[in-house]
Amino acid sequence: MQATSLSALSPSASVVTSPELSQAAAQRSAYAGYQIIRRNGAVVSFEPNKIAVALMKAFLAVHGTQGAASASVRETVDGLTESVVRALLRSRPGGGTFHIEDVQDHVELGLMRGGHHEVARAYVLYRERRSQERAKQGEQAAPQQQPSLFVTDRGQRVPLDVARLKGLVESACANLGSEVQAGPILAETQRNLYDGVPIDEVYKASILAARTLIEKDPGYTRATARLLLHTIRREILNDEVTQEEMTTRYADYFPGFIKRGVEAELLDEKLLQFDLRKLGAALDAGRDLQFDYLGLQTLYDRYFLHIDEERIELPQAFFM
């Protein structure tokens, strides 16, 4: 008996892992690339179980403790939670952040689509009541100066240049019609930022914000493409370059692009025999503005030349 006990306590003894713990660990790993931005700007990990808790509380408010404790309600909550999480992840396939209001909007929509109208109504009223309470608390609190939002750019922590971001978005919306406005893109972009966010994520947030508006007006597909074009130029030229500056930058970039492509054995060395400077000067940067979002994203994902996953080819160089 004593030998058995000692064997069980020895380091070499097998350890039984709880299936629940293993499943929880797997879920944490699956959602590791996702975060939630709270109303105070704090960034926390994305935990789907909190969505389930919120849904269960909504059912409790309508059906009471006994009704909500039934197996059918628990199954309904599990199904709704899975549906909400799936919709959220589909909107950010590569990982990213969700604002808490977006999550609650998806919960509300899931309840309505599932036919749980009474529960949805209770949830809407609860959100409105909490919103009024927060507004009242804000009025009573002493006014405080909001701290500047900082971003991480090339390893440096610097204040977010809001004016520059605004200029970028406005430039992307220029000459696309009165229905394509920079305001909604900028507002949604800033809503999904948090202190210390990498600058690349700021630009990614602007692209996602513009992309969600394509259903509202097709003109936003051009605006989204232009924001994507900015990130492509930044990756390839390693610099913040405006559309106006590209008129001359193409001529400077093209010879170096050909040489890098030849050195990496991606291009034929016979191309070096041409007057690359003259060819680069012939590239029309204005043609970059003719892309829609899907077309440019497809070129970037599948066709632009790259070295070690780093793109080296700009759109007009590709067509040249």
Descriptive account of the structure:
This protein is mostly helical and 320 residues long. The protein folds into two domains: 101 residues, no CATH class; 170 residues, no CATH class. It is built from 14 helices and eight strands. The strands form three sheets. The protein has a three-stranded mixed sheet with strand order 2-1-3. A three-stranded mixed sheet has the order 5-4-6. A two-stranded antiparallel ribbon has the order 7-8. Helix 3 crosses helix 6, helix 7 crosses helix 8 and helix 10 runs parallel beside helix 13.
In short:
This protein has 320 residues and is mainly alpha-helical.
**How many domains make up the 3D coordinates?**
2
N- and C-termini, Cα separation: 82 Å
Query: Low-confidence segments, ≥5 residues, pLDDT <50?
Result: 1-18
**Helix-strand string:** HHEEHHEHHEEHHEHHHHHEEH
Largest sheet: 3 strands, mixed
E-strand count: 8
Kindly state the percentage of residues in helix: 55-70%
Helix run count = 14
Give the mean pLDDT: 84
